[in-house]
Design a protein that fits this description.
This protein is α+β, with helices and mostly antiparallel strands and 413 residues long. The chain is 63% helix and 7% strand. It comes from Amycolatopsis keratiniphila.
Length: 413
């Protein structure tokens, strides 16, 4: 401790004698300190964190302890400084203002020592130096103890707040019974509106514990968009307020910055209670992109893709059931027919546009389409067959690694 080191260098008796005299002025010292703190510091004058009564009590307790310490009747025990630091941290008072208030109080003590050593029988330069060294050493010790306790307490508060916030975000995304009776509390803590307009974002993590959208909540806040996020082993998910008309452009721009993988976005929705459903749709949108690719898809951009991605196993079974005869062909035949069928769908069933896309004669396309119809036993004019073929192609595109496997419904393979 700095204060004890200074006293061991001598002058403890001189400091104690001066402290006895200064202590007689303690009531006025307390009043003067409170008055100066309130005059110089609006946070105390306006009682933003501490009432006048609380401020006076704190000043009295600390100054009484300082005087006992300087008189040598009590060993330097910084418990009072630590108690004040903890109390103010819990109240949310700013640390710089707190330290300034301490300096004002101890400076007032020092001024009384200066007055004593500059006049009368106590006029003594040696005494003034000793008192100055002792008081400022005590200020250093107080400031260190107060700052350390304040920061430790703030860290505890932040950790507790973050833990509660994380739990509420988890409940929001879980939905159902998890949010019953807590939705108002969730909205209040997360600073989101119960009946606001939102989107949910689901971004694929590059690896466990790494955010694909670093500092996204802070970056959105800087642009005045409220949001709440959580990180899981495979996804970073967030709900983002859309109350600002320009929010869509801002969100899209931030999501595309340094994009590293797949990002799914839900449709725009209203009501915080619908977040869990929106998360499902955002995950579906993400799954509509092939693994290993980089891109961003909003669910309502491709309803069929969303439907297929929402039921991967059933979609793969559909693809194998509908396309199995072509999948069983040799490599070249299989690839040509699948590419032709996909191009035909993308060209809205136009033989002419399909031929232009595939750089071949329209009659070649007609021949391939006829063979596709024969191989699959399905008509390219029957709406029901066309719907199944479209869904099967979409599933095969989303889950290409399963195209070479036996059909899940065929136990003989």
């Amino acid at each position: 401790m700095h204060y004890e080191t200074v006293l061991r260098e001598g002058s403890a008796v001189i400091v104690a004698e001066l402290a006895v005299e200064v202590e007689k002025q303690l009531p006025g010292l307390i009043d003067g300190t409170v008055e100066q703190i309130r005059a110089e510091m609006p946070v105390y004058r306006d009682a933003q964190f501490v009432s006048l009564a609380e401020l006076r009590t704190s000043v009295r307790n600390n100054l009484e302890f300082v005087m006992r310490t300087l008189r040598g009747t009590e060993k330097p025990d910084l418990a009072q400084a630590r108690a004040t630091g903890r109390a103010r941290a819990l109240q949310g008072a700013p640390l710089p203002e707190l330290l300034r208030a301490y300096r004002i109080g101890l400076t007032e003590v020092w001024n009384r020592f200066v007055e004593l050593t500059a006049s009368g029988e106590h006029q003594d330069l040696r005494g003034l130096v000793a008192a100055t060294s002792a008081i400022w050493a005590l200020i250093d010790d107080y400031a260190e103890a107060l700052t350390t306790t304040y920061r430790d307490t703030t860290a505890e508060v932040m950790l507790a707040h973050q833990s509660r916030r994380s739990a509420l975000v988890e409940a929001l995304f879980a939905g159902g019974a998890a949010t019953e009776g807590t939705l108002w509390d969730i909205a209040r803590v997360l600073e989101l509106s119960l009946d606001g307009t939102y989107v949910v974002v689901a971004a694929e993590t590059p690896r466990v514990g790494h955010e694909p959208l670093p500092q996204i909540e802070n970056r959105l806040r800087e642009r005045h968009h409220a949001s709440a996020w959580r990180l899981t082993p495979d996804l970073q998910v967030g709900v983002v307020s859309m109350r600002d008309p320009a929010a869509s452009q801002v969100i899209i721009g931030l999501l595309r910055e340094n994009q590293t993988g797949r990002i799914g976005v839900s449709p725009v929705f209203t009501g915080l209670g619908n977040t869990s459903r929106a998360l499902h749709l955002a995950r579906v949108a993400l799954s509509s992109m092939m693994p290993g690719t980089t891109g961003m898809v909003q669910f309502n951009e491709s309803p069929l893709a969303g439907l297929v991605a929402s039921a991967p196993e059933a979609s793969v079974q559909l693809a194998h059931h509908v396309l199995r005869p072509i999948l069983d062909l040799s490599g070249d035949d299989r690839n040509v027919l699948l590419l032709t069928l996909r191009a035909w769908f993308e060209c809205q069933g136009s033989t002419k546009l399909t031929s232009e896309r595939m750089f071949c004669h329209p009659n070649t396309i007609r021949h391939r389409l006829k063979r596709i119809s024969e191989e699959l036993g399905r008509s390219l004019t029957d709406p029901a067959d066309i719907a199944e073929l479209g869904a099967a192609l979409r599933a095969l595109h989303m889950f290409p690694d399963t195209s070479h496997l036996p059909s899940p419904r065929d136990p003989l393979r």
